[in-house]
Design brief:
single chain; 243 residues; alpha+beta; five-stranded mixed beta sheet; 8 helices; 5 strands; 13% strand
Length: 243
Amino acid sequence: MTREDEDLRLLEKLQPIDWVRQNEDDSSWLITYADMVTLILTLFVLLLTYASFDKRGIAQPGEVVQAEQQPTNRQPKSEFIPIQLFQLTQEQIQKQKQAKIEALQAQVNELLKNQANLNSRIHEEGVYLDLDSEILFPTAEASLNVAGQLLIRQAAQVLNKTDNLVVVEGHTDTIPIATPQFPSNWELSAGRATAVLKQLEIEGVSKHRMRAVAYADNQPLSSNDTPEERAKNRRVSILLISQ
């Protein structure tokens, strides 16, 4: 055997050993091993968590049935509690509204101490000042006379010391009217309400606070059976709306 043959034979014997040594330096398998260990550790943590969970917090089917069958002295909750609370709230709102209206009436009455021919009355929306149409207008007309202008000036002095919204209402009695200018009591009540509103604006009441409404004979203060009662119904009412 020559020297070269011996060397080749020796190399063949050494190659497997060198291949193992080369692969011993490859540590990529550690990544897979670490992932597996992490998963196993996570599994054990979850098992430990479920094992230590308070068993009393989980009702068994049999326990549920027993609890339902046991008698109880507790009264069922009323389904009407929200409605009762809503009613109480509405009652409180109504009381507050009424208190504001009464305070407004007290203010108006204080201002009316030195004013003749002006009377106030309380209303669910505010306070009324009732002006007698016999003083304001000639019969079957909607043009203010001198006495009416003076009365409107007195009313304006009261209104100018408040900042409430103002509704000027025209009212008539039930006796029908049929003239070229006023075919019915609707036109007459509208004309009188508008005339008072315009005069209030002249006296300094802001037009942005006011509006005019015609009611004809639909909201009487009294019956229309006698001349005295019909006279009460012929009026212009000024409503100060409570805020």
